[in-house]
From TrEMBL:
Name this protein carries in UniProt: CPBP family intramembrane metalloprotease
GO BP terms in the entry: CAAX-box protein maturation; proteolysis
Keywords from the named record: Hydrolase, Membrane, Metalloprotease, Protease, Transmembrane, Transmembrane helix
GO MF annotation: an example: metallopeptidase activity
Domain named CAAX prenyl protease 2/Lysostaphin resistance protein A-like: residues: 167-252
Xref: InterPro entries: Rce1/LyrA-like_dom
Pfam family, one: Rce1-like
Transmembrane segments: 15-43, 63-87, 99-119, 201-217, 224-244, 278-295
């Protein structure tokens, strides 16, 4: 009876449960992460990291530990708790067991590879954002948040050898991809599809929340695009794994490119946002649309009724 009652909860209330569970799990693991770092390295180091002071040689290992315990683990655990323990329908929400044509991974690979120009132009547009004078305080806070995120990312991606690169491909590439896709394209997008009864609305709302969650507002548009593409990967295939694959490719490519640049094996700075021309921006957009249509065609017949906003019996 309890199982049936929980499952029949309205999508709006399901979304509320999802947010509350995530907030609770996030707080618990943040406390655990701070305690762990404090007990291992000393609480003074936590204050240094909060001030973005990474001069202590223990600051980077401590930062990795904080990243895993306070961010990656709760982002993964929250949707699993929601889907498996609260809704008792983990497969319907997380889509981890759904089969899909392997060719989708190939198509997703090419989509990610040709997306760079479009991501660049969206980033450049985003960088020109200026808020009205009466919102100057918010704009200053957004810039400070952006700079803080860049400093933390730079500290994590400061790589000196191949092992550093492999470690970041695993942490930033794989673990982050799995955790964030479970949270956003798994739990959140599944609930929003049921709530809005519109796949496209759910995909773009989830993508907007996904982008805002990173607190890097001058990278909002490119991350919005990526979130939407990952959303379509899930909706068209019925499985979470093509989105995890696409997310992994995006993050890992950035890690590897940064490593190659830092070790002077390539001359192109991955942070350079003026690499492509206008015709390449247009070409990127057209090819992505075509490849998404190909992706949908290959996946045709694999969609689950639940992804169309229908409840499974």
């Amino acid at each position: 009876m309890m199982k049936s009652a929980v499952y029949q909860t309205s999508p709006a209330r399901q979304f509320l449960y999802f947010v509350v569970i995530f907030a609770g799990v996030f707080v618990v693991f943040n406390v655990l992460g701070i305690l762990a770092v404090g007990l291992i390295y000393g609480f003074g180091l936590i204050m240094d990291i909060a001030r973005l002071n990474f001069s202590d040689p223990h600051s980077i290992p401590a930062l990795y530990l904080l990243q895993i315990v306070t961010t990656t683990i709760p982002i993964f655990v929250a949707p699993v708790v929601f889907a498996a323990w609260v809704m008792r329908k983990s497969e319907e929400y997380l889509r981890v067991k759904q089969s899909f044509p392997p060719m989708l991974l190939v198509v997703a690979f090419f989509i990610m590879m040709v997306s760079s120009p479009l991501i660049e132009i969206l980033s450049n547009i985003n960088q020109q954002m200026v808020l009205p004078q009466w919102l100057k305080g918010i704009e200053n806070w957004m810039k400070q948040s952006e700079e803080s995120a860049k400093k933390v990312t730079a500290a994590i991606l400061n790589m000196h050898n191949t092992w550093d690169c492999v470690k970041n491909v695993f942490l930033v590439g794989l673990l982050t991809a799995i955790a964030e896709e479970f949270l956003f394209r798994g739990g959140m997008q599944s609930v929003l599809i049921k709530w809005t009864k519109n796949q496209h609305a759910a995909i773009w709302i989830t993508a907007a929340i996904f982008s805002a969650f990173h607190m890097e507002f001058y990278g909002f548009l490119p991350r919005l695009l990526l979130g939407a593409m990952f959303g379509y990967f899930v909706v068209y295939s019925g499985s979470i794994w093509p989105a995890v694959w696409g997310h992994f490719l995006n993050n890992s490519t950035a890690v590897i490119a940064t490593y190659l640049f830092q070790t002077k094996r390539i001359n192109l700075d991955p942070d350079d946002q003026h690499v492509f021309s206008w015709w390449q921006y247009i070409f990127s957009l057209i090819i992505i649309i075509i490849l998404l249509l190909v992706y949908k065609k290959v996946a045709e017949g694999k969609k689950s009724p639940a992804l169309n906003g229908e409840e499974l019996g």
